[in-house]
Amino acid sequence: MISKDLKKKFLRDMLRLRLVEERLSAIYHEADEIKTPMHLYTGQEAAAVGVCSALESRDTVSPSHRSHGWYLAKGGDLNAMMAELMGKELGCSGGWGGSMHLLDVEAGVMGSSSILAATVPHAVGMALAFQMKGEDRVAVAPSGDAAVEEGVYHESLNWAALKKLPVIFVCENNFYSTTTHLRDRQPSVDIYKRAEAYGMPGLRCDGNDVGDVYTKALEAVNRARRSEGPSFIEIMTYRWRGHVGPYYDWDAGYRTQQDVEEWMKHCPIKSLAKEFSLQEEQSLKDEIEKEIDVSLAFARNAAFPRKEIIRA
Amino acid sequence: MKYSEAIQDAQAVMMRLDKRVFVCGLGVPAPKEVFGSCSGLKEEFGNKRVFDTPASENGTLGLLLGASLQGMRPIMVNQRVDFFLLALDQLINHASKWKYMFGGRQEMSVLVRLIVGRGWGQGPQHSQSMHALFAHIPGLKVAAPACAYDAKGMIIAALQEGGPVVMIEHRRLYDEIQYVPQGMYSVAFGQARVVVEGKDMTLVASSHMVSEAQKAACLLKDHGISVELIDLRSLRPLDTETVYASVKKTGHLVLVEGDWKPCSVSGEIIASLAEKDPGVFKSPPMRVMWPDMPAPTSAPLEEAFYPSVKDICDACLKVLGSSILVVEKNHEKVMFNGPF
Question: Active site residue: B5, B33, B57, B176, which one?
Answer without folding.
Answer: B57
